[in-house]
Amino acid sequence: MGDEDIELLEATIVEVHTNRTSSNDTPYCALEIESGDWIFVWEGHWKDEIENNAAQYRGLNAEIYAKDKSDEGDDDPWYHLEAVVPQSPEKAGQFLERKIAKDQASA
User: What pLDDT score does 74 carry?
Assistant: First the structure.
């Protein structure tokens, strides 16, 4: 498998693929960036956040932190998401406000 270091991908998210299921029946979603690469998002906070707010991720210019899971010499890279940080301070503020509201609602 690929290197386990977290990489920074500065990219625009062109599509959000939601409510997917892998060949071994694991639910996931994926962010597709302008290069055509997919960043896979498995269970947990990021999957819920992205699926619940997919429209806000489409077209988002972001810093995407991900682990490269490509095989050595693979021409079709694929990644596992670690975090998404919007480039726009305004968008970053909106995302942070949503996170705080969710945390307060669940407290």
Answer: 67
